[in-house]
Queue: 4 jobs
Job 1
Amino acid sequence: MDEITVTLPRERPFGAVAGLVLGGVAARHELTLDVLDDLQIALETLLEHEEGEREVNVVLRIDAGMVQVSVGPFEHSAVCELEEEAGEELGLRRLLDAVVDDVAVEKRADGCWVDLRKGYALAAQDER
């Protein structure tokens, strides 16, 4: 299992760094553009969801057929809606449910972390 951790300031321009890292990992593991786009949308949305002084950590794990992204820490109030089912409105939960396979909130000592999971097939396999 490959694991990469990136620690960034919460300011908006730095979120692009996490997207670049994700793109590099995706290329190395031959993920399809659809999977990469979905993960980038999820990551960008989460990083823009809360502004603050604390740094944010993005932990990427690639395992056989699964990409796992853990993002945090967040204040509980910023991600509490992720603990409930998506409603009719286009909120954070509904958007994340549309682009990743699984969304979970984990409470840790330093705050809440959002865990995202997305299954994938190799780009070369999709072309066959």
Job 2
Amino acid sequence: MATLRDIKRRIVGVKNTQQITKAMKMVAAARLRRAQENILNARPYSKKISEVLQHLLSIEKSFNNPLFTERDVKKIAIVVVTSDRGLCGSFNMNVIRTAEEMVKGDLSGYLTSSSLQMYCVGKKGNDYFTKKDYPVVGSYPGIFSHLKFEFASGLIKELTTKYVNGEIDKVLVVYNEFKSVIQQKTTVEQLFPIKQFESQETETKQIDYIYEPDKVKIIETLLPKHLNAQMWRVLLDSYAAELGARMTAMDMATENAKELIRSLNLTYNSKRQAAITTEILEIVSGANALKES
């Protein structure tokens, strides 16, 4: 049975933990604001490139690029984006579980025939899939501490080269999409082959522009920029979702610690009162015994 000293020590320990979780929540909140700003700054650029490409592809019917070509999928690659640190609830396990279910389910044939390649961005996913001997060909731990656009462009360049050379026939990306501070959506997107842009009848499509250089060269120039922007958006989304999940998890941990401290204080006061009552009874009984003697 726990003594008063044991309960007091536990109260002190929970209070120390509460201070840590509260500090981690504040740090995550500060970083989340910057991450949200980065997403808001990146989205207009990505959106405008997509609009220009959509417009050019809708009028340049003769354009042919292997990145758009559907072919028999003999080899497939999966890019799994997780975080570098834990203490963010189910953030990492949602992505890992989704990727693992895909590999063991619809893609099990590629796994058994050694036609599956995995690229793990983030330490948690890399540690998990490496320990379980999955075919991890690209490991990128620790990139979110200093997240840079050059990493996104480098990864896209490697995947594009492999796709064009026929080393892989399809590329999927699994990550957590940032919806809000308390909501992250585990998403699977197809990176290669590039899906055709949805045609939208707008007034701008009816305008006959004069292009210099020609439309094909402009498309070929914008296409890598579009792919880089998409991967950069995925990384920014994942990082913001991680911070939102950590902020929520640390807020819940802080509230749980508060409730636990309240419960322990009640237990401590109850035991202390019982001990005081027992001591008073012993003193009174002793005094009565002396008086009778």
Job 3
Amino acid sequence: MQLNKTLKKIAEVYKDGGNIMSYLKTITEQNTNSKEAIMISYDLQAGSYIKRVEENFSFTDEYTAKISWVLNNLGPYDTLMEAGVGEATTLCNVFKKLVHKPKRTYGFDISWSRIKFAKKYAEKFAIDGLFLFTGDMFSIPLNDHSIDVVYTAHSIDANGGKEEECIMELYRIAKRYLILIEQSYEFAGDEGKQRMKKLGYATEIYNTVLSLGYNVIEYRLLGVSSNPLNPTGIIIIEKNEDRQAGFELACPITLTELSLERGSYYSKDSLLAYPIIDEVPCLLPENAIIATHYIQ
């Protein structure tokens, strides 16, 4: 079912206070949250996270203090990225608490509208070297081992049943550390576990990391959570890859180098172009435009 054809109806459900993910699973008759459903749900909610932070900054301040404490204890690094950055409320408030500021900071989200709000929110933080773009958690437009420290902040939650491919993709782009700050099924009570399964949330994050054989140096509760039914855990994975990436931004389909050419991102090797809409680079695989004669 092509959900994009029913956006107006879905928007009405959201406006009336309905649970978008539950509604979309009902009309598609799927037990898991599809990529299209997640994209629509997130896009409709764009702006709500900034509003929530403004109404209750004390929680955001405490939450990002916990994250920045972890990052500060890793020592200096050049590149940092939040995968599934949303409206950058976590990234920006973490960044301002960092002792050693990275030279380049990245953030991507599947929702164009969220990135639009994120860019606006980030303006008041004046983060040098900040690059925000749309991207798919399962086809990240970055080269192997290209980002020193990659972290998530409740970005895998909605991808129940797809934990392995998601975590493997995040690990692929990380050079030194991958930090998963996600709801913890293991630390949740019975009610919380049942809720996670009902909503199609990821419940196998930690088990997946173990099965992949990654070097987990710490797994514990973060110490702050917005919902006691969804306790936030933190998994710190050390990688320490020696190979140099060579370049960072990559075509999400071929992983060949992307460069800014005449107002779009273009891969000379794949001959695919990716548009920039209202200053937001659109780097989802489905955004690719075949442009064999883009550069003459």
Job 4
Amino acid sequence: MRIAATKPLFAWDCLEDSPTLKTIRQFLKSVPDAKLLASLRQWRGKGRDDYPVSVLWGTMLLTILLRHQSVESCLGELRRNAALRLLIGIRSETQVPRKWNMSRFMKVLGTKPHLTLLHEVFDTMVRQLAEVVSDLGVHTAGDASGLSGRLPRSKNPLKNPSLPQPTGGRKEYTDEEGNVTKVVEWFGYKFHLLVDTSHEVALAYQITSANTGDNKVLPDILAEAQQNLPVQKPKRKNDPERGRIRTLAYDKAADDEKVHELLHEAKIAPVIENRSMWKENFERMLPGHDGNSNIVYDEAGTVYCYDKVSDPPVRHKMAYIGHEPSRGTLKYRCGACHGGWKCPSHKRCNAGRKYGKTVRVKREIDLRRFPPIPRATKQFERRYKGRTAVERVNARIKIFWGADDGNITGAERFHGYLGVVMVVHIGLAAANFRR
């Protein structure tokens, strides 16, 4: 028996440890860097041009693409490999830049307006990819991770305070009872990502100081992703246009009322783990229900009914039927009638109704508590598992491409270096798509 196995659209497990010259050539041609190079040439002006900015830029791309541990390692390969030198316009070994030339160039990349243009290169490549991959960005996930960094060696005051500077970061992991089980500390930055869960492609990114909350960055990174993804045209004439993103998965760090309101306005279903904040009264009555009712909900927004005929009363989860966008409600029915089992309170609750007791919960009661995809559903569990895509992308950026080595000093160099890493990431996604 033969089982046909097909590779995913972006076969990340097939990345070449040592890309061929053909792959490198195709990648370099696919990078839309004209505006960035023009800005760098204008910055240089009429000064010495021993090493053109195109050569320095190409060297930075090759350092990441060829997975060198340092820029010096890439420069050594360029001195040995004549064919590789020609790909970035170096004709002889004497024209290979020195390590201090690359260090200065990295610092320039991390200053405005070059840093903004570098980010635009990434955004442009995401837009190009989204035009040909129709489902890119439909289901997304976000996360933040710590990256190691170093302070500049100079004792002079910071020349560019607008950039996030390396600081101490700390993250605590707790169990269900709220006890701290693990503590992670680092010195550097916080790297925020929004990725497509199906194709594991980054749609937007941002670098902040290590002590910045995820909920504060999410609105900006979501806006960037929405700009990079084309608006879907309505199927009917009277239907309004809407963004491509349908769901967004995130951990409890984004469980914030403002975040849920933002996603509600953008018509994006949040798949966010809720934070445990109730210290007492772990069950509460739904608005509109009094003490005679048997309908309650917990902190996660799960709706239950009580079998009051039994002694003591027994709690049962109600069956989720679906989200009603036109009404802005979540529809629930009797779990016994829906599941086909007998409940002692059947006559008391259902009163001969075929489908049993029906409860509609208005989402406006608490958008954070009652998302369009309730937490106690298989759909929520399936979408929330998509967060593992962010972890894999983070691992590639931090380990495969060396963004977390901690060898780069100064905020400008770090931001410039990580910007190049993200360009290589999206460029290889496009290269894998073309295969």
